[in-house]
Specification:
The complex is a heterodimer of chains A (169) and B (171). Chain A is an alpha+beta fold and 169 residues long. Chain A has a single domain, classed as 2-Layer Sandwich (Beta-Lactamase), CATH 3.30.450. Chain A has a seven-stranded antiparallel beta sheet with strand order 1-2-5-6-7-3-4, with helices on both faces. In chain A, strand 3 and strand 4 form a beta hairpin. In chain A, helix 1 runs antiparallel to helix 2. The radius of gyration of chain A is 16 Å and the shape is globular. Chain B folds into two domains: 110 residues, no CATH class; 39 residues. In chain B, helix 3 packs antiparallel against helix 4. Chain B is rod-shaped, with a radius of gyration of 27 Å. Chain B starts with a strand and ends with a helix. Classes of the chains: A alpha+beta (169), B mainly alpha (171). Chains A and B meet through helix 2, strand 4 and helix 3 of A and helix 4 and helix 6 of B.
């Protein structure tokens, strides 16, 4: 079990909370049943097609998923569909991280970059990644899990993130 | 898009230079018209030289559609000039062109379909996301704002900030 830690630092004044994002790589066996189901279906289908979307919709899982994709010819992943859990999680973490590409000047850049690195790793892997993420220093501590599955096709990239915040207090 | 350049052959020069799946430029001498020519000269016992010129031109052309592939393979199967009538260099040329064309078609078809499916799936997610709150203003939103005298770029920036604030608020 790999543990990836990305401690945030306050570069300016030394004042204010230090944002710490700890990403713990777990196996899919630790994921919720519905996260496992999504990962299995993505792996089975392999390609990103409308039937991935149809699967999520039919199983009423779409609302629990966040979907990011790069524009044609663009590099940055943009949030195209924001699931309810992500809205809550990232709402706390700063709405700015939500829109467009991650901003290095964002006070929550460490959080955004750590999660972004996970997105990047999932793309084209052909396997789902499952992580537990804990963030401290941005309001109340928060913990959630996400199962990630990413695709790459003709220079475009996309990531599906199935977010479980049952552990979020 | 892939461009397939056919090397100059005989007196006809470049025969097919086009995008796969694209329209055949009007006026180009296509392999299909060559096919008709070949059929005509095959009927003419006097035109023995011409039939081989035409056949070689066709054989050296890499087909970009199934219909063109049929023409190339006919060089191998034609009862008058095909393998049956005796094997020549032209037949090997035709077989190689056919292979190259089919490979390109197969690769192109896969990429096109996968890319199209990818784009379609992405749009579905985006549309489902739009129902909640579009992360970026749609073109019609930008246009509507512009009609009220707001600069489109400023509107985009302002809109993003407004959505970010809303998401934070909603959370």
């Amino acid at each position: 079990m790999a543990v990836v830690s990305f401690p945030g630092t306050d570069h300016s004044t030394g004042q204010g909370a230090t944002v710490e994002t700890v990403i713990t790589r777990l196996t899919l066996a630790d994921a919720a049943d519905w996260q496992q189901a999504i990962a299995a279906e993505c792996r089975r289908q392999r390609l990103l097609t409308p039937s991935v979307f149809a699967f999520l919709k039919d199983r009423r899982l779409l609302d629990r998923c966040t979907f990011l994709a790069s524009d044609e010819g663009g590099d940055a992943l943009r949030f195209l569909h924001i699931g309810e859990p992500t809205l809550r999680v990232l709402g706390r973490a700063g709405g700015r991280s939500m829109i467009g590409q991650f901003d290095v000047d964002d006070p929550h850049a460490d959080f955004a970059h750590s999660v972004g690195a996970q997105y990047a790793e999932s793309i084209g892997a052909g396997e789902a990644l499952f992580n537990r993420i804990s963030v401290t220093g941005m309001g109340k501590p928060l913990i959630y899990t996400h199962a990630l599955y990413g695709w790459s096709e003709g220079g475009r990239r996309a990531v599906l993130s199935a977010v479980d915040v049952r552990t979020l207090h | 898009m892939t461009e397939i350049n056919v090397p100059p052959v005989g007196a006809n020069g470049n025969l097919v230079v086009r995008d796969i799946g694209g329209e055949t430029p009007a006026g180009d001498q296509t392999i299909l018209t060559l096919s008709a020519q070949l059929a005509a000269v095959l009927d003419d016992p006097e035109a023995s030289d011409e039939r081989w010129d035409t056949a070689e031109t066709i054989a050296a052309t890499i087909p970009t559609t199934p219909a063109e592939a049929v023409v190339v393979v006919s060089i191998l199967t034609n009862p008058d000039i095909g393998l049956e009538a005796g094997q020549t260099e032209t037949h090997l040329t035709a077989a190689r062109s056919l292979e190259a064309g089919l490979r390109a078609m197969a690769a192109n078809e896969t990429v096109t379909n996968n890319a199209a499916a990818f784009t379609e799936a992405t749009s579905l997610f985006a549309e489902a996301g739009l129902a909640r709150m579009p992360a970026e203003p749609t073109e019609s939103m930008v246009a509507a704002a512009e009609r009220t005298g707001i600069d489109p770029e400023q509107f985009r920036v302002g809109y993003r900030a407004a959505v970010a604030a809303y998401l934070t608020e909603a959370a």
